[in-house]
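Encode chain A's predicted structure.
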Amino acid sequence: MKARRAIIELTLALAAAVGCVLSWVAASSRVDVPPILDGEPWTTSIAYSAPLVALSFLLAAIAGVLVVLGVAALRRNSN
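Encoded structure for chain A:
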C-alpha cells in the first residue's frame, strides 16, 4: 500500500516537473526595444511574465518535495 503511494508521489513529481518546464518556456517573450538616440538600431529583449515564473518556481518546489517523500517512502518499504 505504501509502495503504491510512493509511486503516485513520484508520478505527481514528474508531472509537476514537466509543468515547471512548460511554464518557464511560456514565461518568456521577445519584445522590440526602440532606440534611445536617433540613428541607433532597434534591439530585441526578453520579457518574462511574473505569474508564469512564480508558477514555475512553485511547481519546482512541489516536485522537489514530492520526490523526497516518494523516495523516502520507497526506502522505508524496502527495509
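The longest strand covers residues 28-33.
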